[in-house]
Amino acid sequence: MSIAESHYPARWWHTLADGRLHCDLCPRDCKLHEGQRGLCFVRKMEDGKLWLTTYGRSSGFCVDPIEKKPLNHFYPGSSVFSFGTAGCNLACKFCQNWDISKSRETDTLVDQALPDEIAKAAEQNACKSVAFTYNDPVIFAEYAMDVADACHARGIKTVAVTAGYIHAAPRREFYAKMDAANVDLKAFTDDFYVKLTGAHLQPVLDTLSYLKRETDVWFEITSLLIPGRNDSNEEIAAMSQWIRRELGPDVPLHFSAFHPDWKMTDVSPTPASTLTRARAIALKAGLNYVYTGNVHDPAGGTTYCPGCHQALIVRDWYRIDQYGVTADGHCPHCGHAIAGRFGAFAVPFGNRRLPVAMHREVQN
């Protein structure tokens, strides 16, 4: 039986007294009847068990610059083998990848690959890492974790691009397989999360605190600023101060520009000035590495030394025009340690995006 024709046994669930199945993966806590799917759409109760219906199937594979995830302090200039599946466990009205994350059609999953095939393809494409992205890997955790094992066997790093909405037990197992993460901190009020994502803020903060205090995972944070929704000086300052207090000054923070999409096409795009303002607020709050995204802003894309303030990595969009961090992660001017994961720097991958065909068509 092919992957496309079968279901993969899901983890993290238990049966309720009334016969329903309780999914323990994320704070959604979906309670399913026979034949019903969770809000994520990809986890389904069938024959009294929970199944992952997208194991081994993807919406596509690409080689990207690591800066696109965005990760600016995880082997800068390297290439990353990127893929996702379908579905999501949040319901963001402003989703920028809604055609994938909101998909309710398995026809979206046009490619097929087993874990070792993905690791082998990443190796053949000279990728430093593999990223689980485009939609949230939390909902296909079993698949992502198996891919991570296959990657590590070949010396390839793994990256989770995620909203961080996951329960404690699966969180421990999931992040034990990850080398890096970009966590989407969508706002700093629970009201925003409830009204615009159908979720809550605290579990995301819990994930960030867990990553900092209990793992060696390198992580960075992205916040998509939406005009009139989460871009006030007060909210940006509160978020920045929390990050500085709870996570430390060296966690990179990316402010990204919103563009009208999905169910929020009536909201104007984020002005570049908003990102510049947010960056200034975060720097004033004591964060050492603050970036802007989705706008052309060389200053907002540059990594500066917190010690001597020299420009060390100068970026233009995803292209690195100047690189000055030593292989062991220090400023060559003053010797200050630059937070992140670094190595010998060669020719950067640049701002290319290279689709990869896995040569296995899904049989529906």
Describe this structure in words.
With 364 residues, the protein is of the alpha/beta class. It folds into two domains: 3-52; 57-290 and 346-355, Alpha-Beta Barrel (TIM Barrel). 24% of the residues lie in helices and 23% in strands. It has a nine-stranded mixed β-sheet with strand order 16-15-14-13-12-11-9-8-20. Strands 1-6-5 form a three-stranded antiparallel β-sheet, with no helix packed on it. The longest helix is centred in the middle third of the chain and has 15 residues, at 233-247.
Summarize the structure.
By secondary structure, the protein is an alpha/beta fold. The chain folds into 2 domains: 3-52; 57-290 and 346-355, Aldolase class I (TIM Barrel, Alpha-Beta Barrel), CATH 3.20.20.70. The chain has helices spanning 98-101, 115-124, 141-153, 168-175, 190-197, 202-214, 233-247, 272-284, 298-301, and strands spanning 8-9, 13-15, 21-23, 31-32, 43-46, 49-52, 57-58, 60-65, 79-84, 111-112, 129-132, 157-162, 180-184, 218-225, 253-257, 290-293, 303-304, 311-316, 319-323, 354-356.
Topology, pairings included?
Layout: E1 8-9, E2 13-15, E3 21-23, E4 31-32, E5 43-46, E6 49-52, E7 57-58, E8 60-65, E9 79-84, H1 98-101, E10 111-112, H2 115-124, E11 129-132, H3 141-153, E12 157-162, H4 168-175, E13 180-184, H5 190-197, H6 202-214, E14 218-225, H7 233-247, E15 253-257, H8 272-284, E16 290-293, H9 298-301, E17 303-304, E18 311-316, E19 319-323, E20 354-356
Parallel strand pairs: 9-11, 11-12, 12-13, 13-14, 14-15, 15-16
Antiparallel strand pairs: 1-6, 2-3, 3-4, 5-6, 7-10, 8-9, 8-20, 17-18, 18-19
Helix pairs in contact: 2-3, 7-8
